[in-house]
Write a structure and sequence with these properties.
The chain has 599 residues and is an alpha/beta fold. It is built from twelve helices and 32 strands.
Length: 599
């Protein structure tokens, strides 16, 4: 691995960072350095150098202007190939080929240099998650990091979902499969990752010094057992770090997984997004913020003035490998500025056949027997079909959601957790199931994310409120269907939703919990099992309607106990034990929810 842990990692005093030389690629004209230490606690006032080394100097002898070509992507979520009924279609091989051609074109050009970055969320959400395992014993490899290393990606920001596989497995993946640095300046308190991530890196490209600072959102971080891992305010961290990075840089890039702005609706943004970060820095203090997290495809038709904040351009390249971004930074003797921005549709890029054959196909061959593992059978039940899942899952009772919630209750009780009922929201289910043989790959498609089971404590009063608000979240027949966080419950909760003439007037009626009217149990305390991202994708809708619909109870706000058990793994165990997804194993409607349309 190229980016080894520096030997002097623990010898760095507070208020300092060490600039450590890592190595060079003479054929590409690149030298690499790491900033090592803690930038979260206080301003960094000095830079410690390796013995016998000096910082790379400002070069006045270069033939300016010099142009840096920055290739970037974000939020691939392991979507390295696109699976269709006809087989796997290349995604990352197209991106890798484009990056390779850029490098070949400019390798010997004295005034052109190329760097390639990911802005995080590189795994969790695709078929290759099966190779990550669920602990260090079952871990095989990190497919994205392995392919990034083969493609020569220069650095990755840490994304919030990169921690879904937990810090221990992430550390293992970095040691085994990553030949690039993982950057996050605002992470603190994680001994498992100590020496595996860095606040910033420095690349000297054709003589131009490029400082790259990583930042990570504190939003939607999976629970980390036995860890004090936490994220510090990114704006304060940037102010702590920026001056010392600028001292040794001609160009400063922020590799951000903060999200576009606090106003973004596609993902939860906390503390600050890229817009708020740029506004809080000195004017034009960095050359560009290369973003992620909110899945924005920014600047499809060239750099928009709306995406230049306080003199700082903000770019982002969509999600799931839709686009490969390209940023040109032109560097003069005393200045540097973004001069061109593009998004290239990945589907239109040619496949790098050699890369696909040498690196991707072996991974597909390794995962095929895992995904083909039989779990049982799927009944020929319309509620399980992909068409119903896509169009009706949040509109009425669902046999598939009944199966999932009842299975969660059984698995929790088998593990010794005293749960009263379980709930999931419709966004937890990503696909349906065709009838017939059920494989592990089929269930990965249904539940691709690494959500963990949380145990929420709530009173009867709160449950009643939750159900009334759930009636306002249901998809109505005459309205556009959105992610509103509609909850499905296990068999212990039975009730009616009266839609009423409008969403504001929808209400829950005839609520029975564990065989008794809820109105007689309002003072009782219940324990509800639910996935860790319950209501997470509804946040954007909630912000637009909160006042009108009187929404005040979100699952995020309830007291929780973390089980550290993956929802997907528990359901796979249940399916194996019960022979599949059938009416006999719980995949049926039983009248626990009745939706009454008053029209």
């Amino acid at each position: 691995m190229l980016w080894e842990r520096p030997a002097a990692f623990f010898a760095i005093p507070p208020g300092a960072l060490r600039l450590t030389y890592v190595g060079a690629s003479p054929e590409e004209g690149i030298e690499r350095y790491l900033f090592v230490g803690d930038a979260t606690a206080r301003p960094v006032e000095r830079l410690i150098l390796d013995e016998g080394r000096t910082p790379p100097p400002k070069r006045d002898d270069l033939d300016y202007p010099i142009r840096l070509k920055i290739a970037h992507f974000n939020d691939l979520h392991g979507n390295l190939v696109y699976l269709q009924p006809g087989g796997a279609h290349p995604v990352f091989s197209r991106m890798a080929g484009s990056i390779r051609r850029l490098r070949e074109r400019y390798r010997r050009h004295p005034q052109r240099g190329v760097l390639a970055f990911s802005s995080g969320d590189d795994a969790v959400g695709g078929i290759f998650d099966a190779l990550l395992g669920c602990d260090e014993n079952s871990f095989r490899l990190h497919a994205a990091y392995r392919l990034y290393s083969a493609a020569g990606i220069d650095a990755c920001a840490l994304g919030n979902h990169d921690l879904d596989l937990n810090a221990r497995l992430l550390a293992r993946a970095l040691r085994q499969d990553a030949s690039f640095p993982l950057l996050t300046a605002n992470l603190a308190g994680c001994s498992w990752l100590s020496g595996g991530y860095f606040p910033a890196a420095l690349f000297v490209v054709k003589g131009v010094r490029v400082g790259v600072i990583g930042l990570t959102t504190p939003a939607q971080i999976a629970p980390q057992p036995d860890s004090t891992l936490h994220f510090v305010d990114p704006i304060r961290t940037m102010h702590n770090l920026l001056s010392v990075v600028k001292e040794v840089s001609d160009v400063v890039i922020v590799l951000s997984h903060l999200g576009y702005s606090l106003a973004s609706t596609s993902a939860r943004v906390l503390a600050a997004g890229d817009c708020e970060l740029a506004a809080a820095l000195p004017h034009a203090a960095v050359q560009v913020v290369i973003g992620g997290h909110t899945h924005h495809a920014l600047n499809e038709h060239g750099l928009s003035p709306h995406n230049v904040v306080n003199g700082i351009p903000i770019v982002q390249a969509g999600k799931l490998g839709e686009f490969l971004g390209e940023v040109d930074i032109t560097v003069g003797r005393r200045w540097a500025a973004v001069t061109n921005v593009q998004l290239h549709a990945t589907s239109r890029l040619p496949v790098d056949e050699a890369f696909e054959r040498e690196y991707v196909q072996p991974l597909l061959r390794e995962i095929e027997p895992i995904l083909a593992e039989p779990l049982g059978v799927v009944a020929d039940e319309p509620d399980l079909s992909i068409d119903v899942v896509r169009n009706e899952l949040a509109a009425r009772e669902s046999a598939l959601c009944n199966f999932i919630t009842d299975a969660l209750v059984e698995q929790c009780r088998l593990a010794g957790y005293p749960v009263d009922f379980a709930a999931i929201d419709a966004s937890s289910v990503s696909a349906g199931l065709p009838p017939g043989r059920l494989t592990l790959g089929d269930w990965f498609a249904v539940m691709p994310y690494a959500d963990v089971i949380q145990l929420c404590t709530l009173t009867g009063h709160q449950l009643e409120q939750l159900l009334h608000e759930n009636a306002r979240r249901v998809d109505r027949p005459d309205e556009v269907h959105l992610e509103r966080g509609f909850l499905h419950f296990s068999a212990a909760v039975r009730y009616r939703i009266h839609l009423g003439p409008s969403r504001e007037q929808a209400r829950a009626e005839d609520i029975i919990v564990n065989g008794q009217p809820l109105c007689e149990q309002r003072e009782r305390t219940f324990v509800m099992a639910c996935p860790s991202f319950t209501h997470a994708l509804a946040s954007s809708w909630e912000e637009t309607v909160r006042n009108n619909l009187r929404l005040s109870l979100n699952a995020h706000a309830l007291p929780k106990e973390e089980t550290h058990r993956l929802v997907r793994n528990e359901l796979i165990a249940y399916i194996r034990a019960h022979g599949g997804v059938t009416p006999e194993s719980g995949a049926r409607r039983d009248g626990r929810l009745v939706v009454v349309d008053s029209n």
